[in-house]
Structure formats: structure tokens, C-alpha cells
Amino acid sequence: MSNVTDLTSDRFHDECGLFAIIDNAEAANLAYLGLHGLQHRGQESAGLVTSDGQTLHAYRRLGLVSDVFTPDVLQKLLGPRAIGHVRYSTAGGTHLSNTQPFVVHFRHGSMAVAHNGNLTNALILREEMERLGAIFQSTTDTEVLVHLMARSGGLDSVETISQALYRARGSYSILFLTPKMVVAARDPHGIRPLCLGRIGDAWVISSESVAFDLVGATFEQDIAPGELIAFDSEGKMQRHRPFPQKPNRSCLFEYVYFARPDTQLDGRSVYHARKEMGAILSQEHPVEADIVIPIPDSGTPAALGYAQKTALPFEMGLIRSHYVGRTFIEPKQSIRNFGVMLKLNPSRAVLDGKRVIVVDDSLVRGTTSKKIVENIRRAGAKEVHIRISSPPIRHACRYGIDTPTDEELIAHSKTPEETAAYIGADSLGYLSLKGLERAVRSKGNCTACFSGDYPIDFHDEGRILQLNLEGL
Amino acid sequence: MSNVTDLTSDRFHDECGLFAIIDNAEAANLAYLGLHGLQHRGQESAGLVTSDGQTLHAYRRLGLVSDVFTPDVLQKLLGPRAIGHVRYSTAGGTHLSNTQPFVVHFRHGSMAVAHNGNLTNALILREEMERLGAIFQSTTDTEVLVHLMARSGGLDSVETISQALYRARGSYSILFLTPKMVVAARDPHGIRPLCLGRIGDAWVISSESVAFDLVGATFEQDIAPGELIAFDSEGKMQRHRPFPQKPNRSCLFEYVYFARPDTQLDGRSVYHARKEMGAILSQEHPVEADIVIPIPDSGTPAALGYAQKTALPFEMGLIRSHYVGRTFIEPKQSIRNFGVMLKLNPSRAVLDGKRVIVVDDSLVRGTTSKKIVENIRRAGAKEVHIRISSPPIRHACRYGIDTPTDEELIAHSKTPEETAAYIGADSLGYLSLKGLERAVRSKGNCTACFSGDYPIDFHDEGRILQLNLEGL
Amino acid sequence: MSNVTDLTSDRFHDECGLFAIIDNAEAANLAYLGLHGLQHRGQESAGLVTSDGQTLHAYRRLGLVSDVFTPDVLQKLLGPRAIGHVRYSTAGGTHLSNTQPFVVHFRHGSMAVAHNGNLTNALILREEMERLGAIFQSTTDTEVLVHLMARSGGLDSVETISQALYRARGSYSILFLTPKMVVAARDPHGIRPLCLGRIGDAWVISSESVAFDLVGATFEQDIAPGELIAFDSEGKMQRHRPFPQKPNRSCLFEYVYFARPDTQLDGRSVYHARKEMGAILSQEHPVEADIVIPIPDSGTPAALGYAQKTALPFEMGLIRSHYVGRTFIEPKQSIRNFGVMLKLNPSRAVLDGKRVIVVDDSLVRGTTSKKIVENIRRAGAKEVHIRISSPPIRHACRYGIDTPTDEELIAHSKTPEETAAYIGADSLGYLSLKGLERAVRSKGNCTACFSGDYPIDFHDEGRILQLNLEGL
Amino acid sequence: MSNVTDLTSDRFHDECGLFAIIDNAEAANLAYLGLHGLQHRGQESAGLVTSDGQTLHAYRRLGLVSDVFTPDVLQKLLGPRAIGHVRYSTAGGTHLSNTQPFVVHFRHGSMAVAHNGNLTNALILREEMERLGAIFQSTTDTEVLVHLMARSGGLDSVETISQALYRARGSYSILFLTPKMVVAARDPHGIRPLCLGRIGDAWVISSESVAFDLVGATFEQDIAPGELIAFDSEGKMQRHRPFPQKPNRSCLFEYVYFARPDTQLDGRSVYHARKEMGAILSQEHPVEADIVIPIPDSGTPAALGYAQKTALPFEMGLIRSHYVGRTFIEPKQSIRNFGVMLKLNPSRAVLDGKRVIVVDDSLVRGTTSKKIVENIRRAGAKEVHIRISSPPIRHACRYGIDTPTDEELIAHSKTPEETAAYIGADSLGYLSLKGLERAVRSKGNCTACFSGDYPIDFHDEGRILQLNLEGL
Fold first, then answer.
1. Which stretches of chain D drop beneath a pLDDT of 50?
2. Which D residues, 74 through 93, put their C-beta within 8 Å of a C-beta on chain A?
3. Catalytic residues of D
4. How big is the CA angle at B19 (ends B323 and B110), to the nearest 5 degrees?
5. Cβ of D110 and A469 within 8 Å?
6. Does the pLDDT at position C7 exceed 60?
7. Which residues pair with C49 in a beta bridge?
8. What's the CATH code, domain A10-249?
9. Cβ of D417: how many Cβ atoms within 10 Å?
């Protein structure tokens, strides 16, 4: 009878969040709280592995951080060190076997690994490893890295990890935990973020600085592209640069959408960057209008920037519901755009008779935007002008962001004018790439999804992971 | 080891939401969707009862609308008529036996009842009914009303219901469903809201107009205080005024906090009313400052109104997390104010070095505000000025809102200056009652929680429901 | 695709089991253990209500005793008195609202009631109560009794309960718990069992003596037909005979099938009674054969009696699986009699080439027996002779046993010869009613299901409970 | 407060059951039914993997067969071939990662493996594999075998599997499934059982013949020790003998306890073997007594054999409850032996005043027997004589049976007389090893647990799996 509709489609998805804490009596508890602050980076699964110096203690499940961990579970995650992971699937399906941190036993003993990013030569390496007799039980890049380590001739953990990462191409921010060591590393281009902080005497590491706020830690610095930091059994930190120097290519899209607004990336406040995107956008694409409204919450800072720059009134014309789960049951005779309305209800009292500028952070497939424009018009808006605080997304990400394929990206084949017509807007304006770079104070970020200029070759091009398995 | 902390304390809670649909082929589905739109009015339990003309079909459970109803359940809720209910406990505990719609069998046949409000003579009536041989299985006011009906000499449903309601004092918006009839009524003072709409040929009834938006229905009018509307087996509507005329006393607090901003109450947009509260507040309590920030989302419209009126920049200085459940596990060595931070993280980039005006809709116990002020200061704010877009709440509600007792209300015993000192703010300003009434275009609303002027006597004063039962 | 088959059909079902304990520090725990020993009398729901002298503490859920109760729940069931109930539906559906003990609040305060039996004038009383203004929330007989009490003019609990029971016809063993009192009663004919025991200083009451074994209690005596026993707030026991004397009519079928073999009923060991049924059966229906096998476990004692009397070898020719749940998923192309085989697999090594006597306790619809005979033949048996250790069941029970209707009972319309042909047996022999009475040392038991001689009129004849409600 | 007691202690546990079906349209459904028939061999987890010729479809979970599989799951297990597994932990903990069939991807593609048995050189091989760069994610022997395959130079599946198994020592009955092949093999000593059957045109393979009865298959023959049977993509069967010939050493304990009585092992009915064990036991250890009772159900056939041989009456003196889960909540003041009584209640009517012979299949730690003897005496027995239908178990199994360590085995350190004193019996008699071998018509079975004569060296002696991981 009724259908169940997924409310999460047509959006980018954050892929992973990492958190580590080294030598604090409440490691599991604090890592759990830190993962809460990174929940926006992955809602599919969560995991923690702790070390008590002798033994690793692991727990991973599908679900949100608050659902996965209970007081009972946290109590059993013993020891003063922990690494944690939240995940949304990029490579690899949603199977339990793909949850992280990934744990293996090999000649170096037991090791847990948590990875954020996407290797561009994972399949090549996988095939090589399989030729050498490796068996795989997941579809994750992480398992490939672990096989590289298992075959490494390295004399210690740092050497072993360095040798394995040396062979990897693509993006990775990554954490390793053995009974005696913690190692964190960021790929030479620094595509995915990773930063270092302190809470009392303990070091903490996080994908985003916002998690430090939550656990009462202070931000120390971003881990540099190509840097590998190791903490030995006594907690002494050693910093390494095992890889050839590469230009910084940290992801621009983290500023646009992924990172929380209360995070700092490479020293730049995401909130202020987004406001400035809106301000620049207002100059690049001015239009006569009565009000500026955001698509909450992701479009709110840019809309504020737009409104402040133009002195147009900023209003909440779409009311976001706080009780929407991932799905709802649809009526047989579908109510037009019900799902989008349930999430973002247009307020007639605000919109009726108005010329409305709607600010969103990005436009992917355009299907949701089309519905929102339609809903806003039905609520009485006279004109609907869409302003996007990022350039057209024309190319799929290959470094760990779950974008649709090129063909599914509306900007891949449609001009802004065609797109405006498709979504039913009176006008559509995108922020220019230059404008975006100005707003983030860019120092050479990766712009691949906008420009097609991929800083790292996609070595796996044309290869497909041939699995012959459907796990349920 | 760890404690579990409830993140929902120190807030008002809406108590109930009602939705009905009369004579639509997809009654259960649409009522389910309507309840989604009223979820903010009660997150503890949800229920639907449908009628196929012969038989009632009922389903009630603890949980959110999206958790309670599955496609299987909706498919079994047969028939073209439905009444639905979401509930947060005001009177009566959280037991399953208190979920609604309440269903009984008596000499008039089977009947389902869904009630929003609080009777002020429920215990008197209960005692009277018990003296006459009634047995009770719940602690709800609704069961009292049903006993009144069971003893009524009325010749038909309308008469029976009228006679029962005639004896009730207090507040009620209420829906009745029998195999043949639907009846909706609102108490003579009209304290709790209830409105009428249409979707195609079908009538719909809702606590708030926002639910009409969601199901594609059009708002027709508010059901008048003291009005009783009956729909017979053919769907014909008859409107009755069975009670003595009373002055309108619809709840002012719905405007301040309970209702969604995209709802209209008595013809007034809640969003605009809240913005105007903020604007008037800015005139009543001006202060030198750099930015205006809301406590999101409840304080957002008033903060916008405040900022627009004063031309101060409106900023999102507290970032609300969308992944916070009702509880989290606390670390042993408590991180100061972690729970509040997890929900509302202060953004240093916005707040550092600033004189900040923080706008919220209301101040109840003050404990959360105290934590928020502290967090904002730790994020670098130079000054913190709290502005509340409602008058001091000095008195507990007796008509269906779950306020703390008088003693727990900070404004009951503390002046604004004392309160400012307690919560650590540089200044604190409340909107005046006059200002609030101006903002909502008041026509005589109930102001009891602010003024202590209770429009209906609390006849149960001094009586306690002596239950001798703890159900688990 | 696949179908789910219910493995529990075509059997009698016990309906309810009762357990009470008065004044023991571990009342809830011991009552919980006692209910374990009565689980065979009802697997659908379980409940416990305790009294701490001031307040009742209640917990009832659908499920087995071991699933319903957790240490957390038991810990909250405070106080030294408890009554418990397990239930399989006889009257009333499987809804949560029908679980027991039933708890109400009325002018006498709070009361919990647990009932085993079936009233034969429940609908008449229900209609009468409804005419007087009663509302009903369940379909149980118990709620009718409570309404009678609510209207009673009795001055104390004993008087109130006596007056209510005085109006009831049919069968009941029943327990009442108020904050201050425990009352147990058995209907004047004593149809359903109830017995009294002691554990240390505490009194215990149970449907069957086997529960006393489990909690370490000693059996004192059966509660007499028509007896009402009250325990006051100090634990003093008073025995009453408030009803007119009636002849004993305790249920004969308890001996045949319902009661556990390790129980004593009216002083007679059920195990020995069943063995003697088998022995007498072997004389009434002798046949040349090689082995005697039971339908385990219900037919085992009678088969032993049959084999011992005839000196034929007793063998386990059907192996009962201990891992069969209530349902399994059937293949598309149904395997003949899979469900029955999964439960009772015929052992070829035992049966091949043999003339087999199969002893079961009763024959209801004959559909399962037909499958078993077929399975036994496929396992190689040369002859299959069915022997039933009870007379033909020709009439539905009206006093609380969940038999099929007369029409569904195979013996209602078919002679033993016709039945043998239907189930494919070489011969079929039933125990005579005289033989059964001899085996149980009968003192005038109810034989209605065999003889059609109903000791109590069915006053509700022709009445149907018109509910107009489908609860989910 | 209350403790939760495990009712499953002090018993042997079957470890694994295997089932396969090759080329039947309902493969998943039939394998599911087959696993039902092998549930007694492992109640901890269940899994099925099917092949549709291109892709494997896998589902594995902790739980009973009836709980793990739903119609939805079975429907998604596509294809005409399936292998299934039920498991109780022997080697490896109860973690999800140890459930089987085990599935891997390697250079030979995807493969599923299901294993019953225990390798005696698993740790040696594991260390070797780790030295060569293997990573492990479970603690199962199966993963070791897969690594051997991954490194094999074999040209096809049969060769690859043979080469891997060639290196393995210990016991294994094992199934392999690839998209194109099914392979079954039994170790050269044939320690664990495995047999072949047919259902229509399809081949079926099972640990025990009883599963064939259930799915309507016919038993063809036992798979011979050292035999490897391969089914190619067209379903053609090829039988191989890739290993050096070894003497048959099939497990004697399967006859004593593990196998179902309705199974045939090496052509011998387990039921008849057990009856004969009882008969021989009665001659080896005669005693004056009134009745013979079994510990049901495992002791029932031997007790029947004992009673028939001695012409003593066989009685059900202990009533087994069918509603006992794995745990129950204990009262604070423990009722003596409650757990054992709940499971096996002694019937006073049978036992009172009697000299009782109690027959059980085996005696492990003696703790349960001690409680049973005590309970039987409290029920009035004058004398209690324990007769065990197997020799004293003095040595732990190394080939896949989950026995306690030598030290925990009561017979390892106590004589029968000392044991009788410990458990409180008037006498204790064990069946002799000769008697047991006579009863099973032994052709050289493994007797290690009785005699200490281990047919295969325990190569891993002294090695410990050093894991440094606690998975939750």
C-alpha cells in the first residue's frame, strides 16, 4: 500500500569522522563525546577501540553514536587510549563488515585502523595483494592498507605504517591503534582534515576542531599534509614527514557544506567563510527582492552574509522540523513534495506576496531544489531567486565525498539558465570559484568537484571491484 | 560508572496535539502525516483510531510518530475517518495505559476520545463517579469525561457528549470518534487551540494549522471557543453552541513557545508575532552591543525581530546539533555544561571579543540559561545580555501546560536583577505583558502564567489523586 | 514467497495459571518462580502485582514468564505480597488490554484481580453494568466482576468480593489483591483448580501443586469448591463459605491433558492417573502389536501404563525437538507434514517393519494425528494403532478451556471407525468415560466435553459481545 | 538484587552442524529446514550462503535458526545452491566475526566455507601465515584454511582446497561454496560425521541423517573419511581421495550424547546403540531397585534399554519443562537447586519410598548430578543409584567437542566410588569402554575422551592464540 520514502536523498553526505585520545583516564568516555561532535560526518555506523596497554577493546555497530553506545559498552572499553570513527558509506556498502575502526591480527599483533578518505589506487593494490595470497572480508580501502602493512618489512609500527601509506594514493586522514602505539597521519595533499588538541595532559586528535570544544580540549594546530604523528607506549609524541612534499590541496567543499560552521579549517572559521561566500554571492548575482531566506541550517550563514551585505531582511521562510527521521510512510495518492515539506515547511505568513531570495550552500541533482521552489511558490511567493554559495558542482569527488556521478550532477550538463528553468526559479546564481576561494582565503585547495582539476590521478580508473557477494 | 543525563529538562513541554480527518479514502495515512506536523506538541506517545462505519481500529504506543507507525500498522487502520493524538504527559504518568486516543465500550457502543487540555475539576468528578460505582484504569482526565458520558441520559452522541462536557471545568480541545460519528469540541474559554480545514471533500481538524500545510489541506477557520462540531454518518457537519458564552481566553503561551512558527493562531502568524515580540523587547530593553544571537530555534524569530529593529547584526552564535537524542552518557569527571554544549555549541569565531545580546523565548528555572551564559563567556564574549521575549513566568499553568511548580519558577521568587546575577548575565530584560499582548494582537488571552490571573477556578485545589498503584 | 506456519494449532490450550504469596520478603521473586512452574497453563502473557501495604506495583506484558520479567522489573515490584497470572486467550483476544492481573481504581481504592475460568453469564452482567453507566476497556470476564464490586454495597473487601461473585455463574478460580488484603476464591462447583501451601511463615496459593515444589513450598490442601479465603493486613487468614453449597464438578480434562504430570489434583497424582488411563485403555482396546510408543510428552505416562499392563516394549518412536518455536517458514513446494515432523520426527530405526501402538492423551480435530500416522507409516511401520487415553471429545468446553467448536471436534460427527479411516490408522480406540473416572478416582467431576452434561447453564447463550473495535 | 543463573552449564555442547543442497529451486528454504534439524549441534549462531551461479548471497547472525531467518531474508538468498551452518563455540569466542559460513574474497574470487571440527595445528599454520603477511579478523580455524587456499598454487577449486586441507591436521567436516562450485570434505580419520543424500534430482549433504528426514531427502551414504566430493557448475559430482589413507576414527561420543537418537551414524542407529548401552550397563552394574528413571531426554533411550533388560519398571520420575530458556532470575535467598528443578522437577508421586536407578548418558563435572540426586531424595526416594551409559570421561576432547579441561572433569581425578560420594548417590556405575564399543558396533572409533588415546597429535600444544583484542 504505502511507500516508505527516504528523506536523505539528493544531498551530499559526509563520509567519516575521526577522533582519538591518548592517555586520559576516561578515554572511552571522552572519545564517545568527541564522536557526538562529529556525528554530522557519518550517521551510518560508529565504533570505538581502546587500548589498555596490553589488549585492544573494540565495539562497532550500525547506528548513531547515541544509539550504538550504552553505559555498559563504554564501561568495557578499558584503557587510557581510544580511537573512534563515524561513517557514512563512500566506498563499500552499508554492511556490518565495513564498520570501523577496522581490527586485524597479523604478525605485528593486533591493530585497529580508522580511515577518512578514499584511495585512488585501492583496486590496483587489492589485486596485487590478492595475487600474493591475501584474503579480503570487506570492501573498504582500509583493509587494503592493512594488507600492505602485513607485508611490510618495517621494523616498528611507524616504519610499517609509513611503508604501507607510501604505496597508497588518494586521500586519507587515518588513525592506528596497537596495544602500545597510536599513530595519526594525513595524506601528502592534506585533502581530508585532521587536527591536534590537548585536554589536560592528554593529546586529542579530531577531524574537526568542534569536537575539541565539546570535550573541553584546546585546539593546538592542524596536522600538516603528509605528516605522521606517533605516540609511543609512554605517550611521547614524535612527528614524522615520511612522504615526498606535495602542494596543499585540502578540500574546498568542507568549507561549503561538510564541516560544521563552528569548526576552524586551516585557521579559517567555517562560519565566517560561509557568511563571506554569501556576501560575495550577493555582489556577483544581485537581484531586486523583498527578503532573503536560507535553506536551514546549511544555507543559514551564507544567507546571513547575503542579507547583511545587501541590507535585505533575513527571514526564516522555511521551518525545519526537528522530529524528522530518515524515512516516513507516503500516502497512496502522493501529496506533492510531502517529504520535503515535512522537513522544511514554507511559512505562508513570511512568503506570501514576496520576491524571495533563497540561499543554499550547493546544488547537486536539483530535484530537492525543484520541490522547494514549488513549495515556496505555493506558499504565495511572487518571485523565487535561487542563490548558491558555491560554484556549479560538475564533477564527482574521487577523494572521499559521496557525490553522485558526473551524469547525475545537474551542473554537469545544464547551464545555470537551464537549471533555473528546470527547478522553476525566476533566476539562479552560483558563487564563482574565485569568489569561493576568496571567501575561504584559499591557499591552493582541491577544487576538483567544481573545476574538474583533480590533483591526484584516479589510478583505479576503469577497474571495478568484482565481488560476487551480496551480504545481507 | 557513567551517568546518563536527560537533555530535555528545564523546558516547557507541549502536552498534546490533535488531528482528525472525516471521509477521505486515505484517512489513516493522512492523519499519520498530520500527526508528524504536530510532533512538537508531544513526543511521548502517539495513537490513531479509525472508523470504517462499523468498527473502530485502534493503535497506540509510546514513542515518536515515525517510530510508532509502520506501513503494516497503517494498512490495518481501516476506514475513511480517523482521529489521532500525540502526547507529552501533563496529568497522568507516562504509562502505556495513559496513551490516547482513549477507547471504551459502554452502552452507547465503542468510542475513542482524544483530549488536549486539563480539567480543573477532574478529581471532584472522579470521586463522584467512583461513589456511583465507576472503575478507573488510567489517571487521565479523559477517562473522567467518558464516565460522565456513560451516565448521561443523552439520546444521541451529540447530546451525550454535550452533557458530559457541560460538567467539565478547565481547558479542553477534544475529539470523539464512534463507528458512526465524529465530534470535535473546544472549551468555552477556548484555551487550547483547534482549527478546521478541508482537503478536497474531506474535513480535517487540527490543533495547529501547520498540519494542514503538510497534508495539502486549506485552513478554513478556528473552531470557536465553546463550539461543538458533529459529523454524522453521512459526513454532514452540524455546529453547536451547547455551553454558556464565556470570554475568549486562548493561551498566550502558545504564541510565545508552544506553537510552531509556521502556524496561525486566531488569525495571527506566530512567526510575525514572535518577531514583533523581539522588536518591542528591543525598545523596552535596549543595550549597547555588537551582535544579536538567538537560542535556536525557539528564540530565532524574536532575535530576528530584535536585530532588525535595532539594526544590530544577527548572527548564529550557538550552533544547534541535529543529532542529539534525549540522553547521553556523561563522563565521570563531568565536563562543565557538556549536555548544553552538545546541543548548542557556542562558536568562538562569532562570539570572541563581542558584546552579545542573547534572545530566548522564555526563562523557566534558569539552570540552562546559566550554563549557556557560562559557555558563551568561555567562547570569548565580553558581555552577555539576556533578552527574553516573554514576561517573567511566575505561576504554574493549570490548563494543560507542563510548567514546573511556582517554587521552581525562577521568576516566582527572583527579580530580573537577581535572576541576571544568578545566571551570570550582564543584564536581563523581559518583554512586558503589555508588549506581548501588543505583539500577538491579543483579544483577551489567558495570561495566568505571567499574571497569576487564572480565568477558571482550580476546583480540584487541595485534592490529590490517591492511586496506590505503580505501573511499570 | 514462503509461508509461515503455526506449529501450535490443533491442540487444546491451557488458559490460565494463578499464583499468590502472602507475606514473604521475596514475594515478587517467588511469585515469578511460581509462574515459571505454571507456564504450561498460558504462554501468551504474564503479569505480577505486588503490594507493599500502601501501594500496588504492577507489571504485565505479552510473552513468556522468562521474557516478560527482568531483574530490573522484579526489583521494582516491591512489597511482601504478590499475585501473578499467566494466560492463554479463551475469552477475549490477545490484546495487551486483556493481560492480567487486571488493575483498577474505584471507590474501594486500587485492586488487582487475576482470574482463571469462564463466566457463563458475563455478557448478561456486562449489559446490565453498561445500562447502569459502566465503561469497559477490555473484553475479559474479569472486568465484569470488577464492575460488580464497584457497585457492591459491601462494607469491606470480603463482603464486596462475595457480593460480586454471588452474581457470577460459571467457573472461576480467582485472586484479589488490594494494598491491605489478599483474597482467593474458587467457584461453588470447583471447576478450575486452586490449592494452598506454605513456605516458611508465608502462605502460597497456586493453580497446581507443582509450583509449590519449585519454590520449596509444601502443599497444604486444595481450596474447597465455593471457598473464599481472605488474608488481612496482618496476614491473618479467614476462611469463608459465602455461596450456596453445590456438588463438586472439578474439571476431568485437567487430569487428561492440562495439568502437569507432577501435580496432584484433589489428592490424586496426575502421573499415576494417566498411567492408569493407559492401563485401562489397554484392556478396553487390546490389539496385537510389536511396540507401544507415546506422542511425547503428553502421551508418555499413558503409553507407559499401556505398555506395562500389556508387557509390550515401550519405545520412543517419535523424537521431539526441543528447539521448535511457535512458527517456521514453509517451503513453496510444501514438504508433506514438515511442521509435525520438525516437532516429532518418526525414527525409522524404531518403527521400520513394526506393528505400532501410538498412545496420545486426546484427539481434537484429528488433523495432526492424520499427519503423524502418515509420517509413522513412511518411516516403515507395518500397522498403526491409535489409542487415546480419554473418551471422545464431542462438546466444546464452556468453563474456560479453549476447545474448538462442536463442529470442529472430529468426535462430534464421526464414529471411532470413521475417525480411524480419516486419520489413516489401522484401528482407533478411546478410553471409556467410566475408565477415565476409574483412573482419576472421580468424585463427580465435570464431564461436559465428553458427555455433553454441562453442570452450569450457559446463560449467555445466543449473546455476542458486540465490540466495534479492532485493537492492534 | 537477584542473580541470573545459566541453566546450560555442566553439559557437553555440540559444536557445529553442516547442511548443503546442490541444484534445487528452493535451496535456501530447504537448507533452512535442514538447519532446523541440526539445531541441537549448535544454538549460538546460524548462517546460510547461497549461489546463483554468479554471486554468493550471505546471511549470518547470532541466535537460533528460527530467530535468525525471516521470510524476507530467505527470499533474498537467491540461487539453487546453499551451504548452511549452526554453531556453538569451541575454538573462538561468541563474537559475530566468528559466525559461519565464513566468506572471503581472494584471487580465486569469492568463497564461503562452513567447518565442523577442530584443527590441531591451527596456531602453527596461523603463525606461518602471519609471517607470510596474512591478516586475521577472526579466531576461527576456518580463516586459517582460507589463508592456505589463498596461497595455494592450485589450478582449480578442487586442487586449491585439497592443497589447503593437506596441510591441516585434526578434525574437519567442511563445505565450500563458490559461485560455480560446491565442495564437501571429511578429514582422513573421519572424526566428525558427514553424509550424502538426495532429494529429487538434487544432492544434499548433512552432518546427520536426521536432517534428510525433515526435508524429505533419502540417505545415500556416509561420506568416507578422507573423501572430497566436488560438484561443478553443471552439478556433476566428482569424488576424490586426495589424502593418504588413515584408519577410521569417527567420534564415539556422537553416539553417546551429541547425535540425535533418530540419526544413523556409520550405519548404526543411535537410538538402538543407546538402548544397548543401557542394556549392557544393566549387566555390568546391576543393583536391587524398584524403578528405572532417565534424565530426560538424553538419558531416555539408555534408561529404556536398562529397564527392558532388567524388567524393572521404567518411569518418568523427573518432569522436563518445555518452557525453560537459557537463564532465569534467582531469588536472593537461593532456593536449593532451583534451576535444575525448574528444568527437571522430581515427581514425588513417582519417587516417594522407592529405590531408584537414574540413568544418564554421561557425567562431566558432576555438579548437576549432585543437585539432581539431592532433589530426588527430597522427593522421597529411599535409594538413588546413578548409572551412566558411557565410560568415565577423563580427558578433554581436542577434535571439536566443547568439553571442560581435564582438571574440571570429575572422572579425571575421582574414582567412581569417590564420585558417588561427591554426588551423594548410593552407588554409581559407568558403562565400560568395551561395553560402549560393543553397543555401537565399533570399527575403531576415537575414544580419546575416555581412554586418553588421541589418534592425532595436538601440534599446537603449548601455543596460545595471543590476540590482544576484546571485541564486544
1. 1-14, 91-94
2. 76-77
3. 16
4. 125
5. yes
6. no
7. C58, C83
8. 3.60.20.10
9. 10
Pairing outcome for strands A291-294 and A268-269: unpaired
In chain A, which residues have their Cβ closer than 8 Å to the Cβ of B269? 347, 349-350
In chain C, where does the domain assigned CATH 3.40.50.2020 lie? 269-444
Provide the pLDDT for residue C14: 41
- pLDDT number for residue A326: 57
> Could you tell me which CATH class the domain B9-249 is placed in?
alpha beta
Q: What are phi and psi of C274, to 5 degrees?
A: -70, -40
How buried is residue D204: exposed, middle or buried, by Cβ count under 10 Å (0-12/13-18/19+)?
Answer: buried
Q: Which residues of chain A have pLDDT under 70?
A: 1-14, 89-97, 324-328, 333-334, 466-468, 471-472
Q: Are D233 and D180 in contact (CB under 8 A)?
A: yes
Per residue in C79-132, pLDDT (tens digit) is 999 999 998 865 444 455 678 999 888 888 899 999 999 999 999 999 999 999
- Check whether C406 has a pLDDT greater than 50: yes
Interface subset of D 437-466, CB within 8 angstroms of C: none
The whole-number pLDDT of residue D3 equals 44
Mean pLDDT of C453-458: 92
Give D358-409 as a DSSP string. EEES--SSSHHHHHHHHHHHHTT-SEEEEEESS----S--SSS-----GGG-
In chain A, CATH 3.40.50.2020 sits at 268-451
From residue D309, give the alpha-carbon distance in Å to each of A247, D306, D357. Answer: 90, 5, 13
Instruction: Find all residues with CB under 8 Å of D353, minimum gap 6, and list them.
Output: D380, D381, D382
Residue window 241-270, chain B: list those with CB within 8 Å of chain A: 260-262, 264, 269-270
- Tell me the average confidence (pLDDT) per consecutive run of 10 residues in chain B, 472 residues long: 41 72 95 94 92 93 90 93 87 61 88 94 92 88 91 84 94 96 97 96 97 93 97 95 92 95 94 98 98 96 98 96 71 73 92 98 94 96 98 93 89 97 98 97 93 91 72 66
Q: Is A290 on the interface with B (CB under 8 A)?
A: no
pLDDT single digits (tens) C13-52: 347 999 999 999 999 999 999 999 999 999 889 999 999 9
Q: Where in chain B is the domain with CATH 3.40.50.2020?
A: 269-451
Total Cβ atoms within 10 A of residue C427: 16
Fold of C269-444: Rossmann fold (3.40.50)
Q: Does D72 touch chain A (CB under 8 A)?
A: no
Q: What is the complex's ipTM, to 2 decimals?
A: 0.91
Residues of C annotated as catalytic (active site), given as ranges: 16
Helices within C268-311 (DSSP H only): 270-284, 300-310
Cβ separation of B332 and A26 shorter than 8 Å?
yes
Distance from CA of D442 to the nearest CA of C (A): 18
Q: How many CA atoms are closer than 13 Å to the CA of B71, on its beta-carbon side?
A: 11
Mean pLDDT (chain D, rounded):
90
Domain with CATH 3.60.20.10 in chain C: 9-249
Q: Nearest residue of D to residue C319 by CA position? A: D262
What's A268-451's CATH class? Answer: alpha beta
The domain made up of D269-451 has a fold known as: Rossmann fold (3.40.50)
Nearest by CB to A469, from D58, D146, D147: name it.
D58
Residue type, B49: V
Q: Which residues contact A293 (CB under 8 A, 6 or more apart)?
A: A303, A314, A315, A316, A317, A318, A350, A351, A356, A357, A358, A359
**Which cell numbers hold the place of B370?**
546559566
